[in-house]
Design a protein that fits this description.
There is one protein chain. The chain has no helices and 5 strands. By secondary structure, it is an all-beta fold. It has a domain at 8-61. It is elongated, with a radius of gyration of 16 Å.
Length: 81
């Protein structure tokens, strides 16, 4: 990255939908009935669209809502509920 005068770091959150699969640590996605995990990568690219690679990524899942409709905050997804 040091070879380039400008590098853009692009972030995106993607839902990985594993609905119907028997896997541990899955949580609700956009809809409570969907089961999966969130992936949040950071891609480095030049303004000319040359891909330089992934600089960071994290995965996490949310806890289901409780009986009052409140979702506990997961440390990896704090602020994203």
């Amino acid at each position: 990255m040091a070879q380039h005068p400008v590098v853009l770091c692009l972030q995106d959150t993607t839902e990985l939908d594993f609905n119907g699969q028997a896997m541990d640590d899955l949580g609700p996605l956009s809809f409570e009935a969907q089961r999966g995990m969130y992936l949040h990568p950071t891609y480095a690219v030049t303004p000319d669209r040359e891909a330089l690679g992934v600089t960071d990524a994290w995965m996490g899942s949310r806890e289901p809502r409780d009986d009052e409709g409140v979702r506990p905050r997961a440390s990896a997804l704090a602020g994203r509920n």
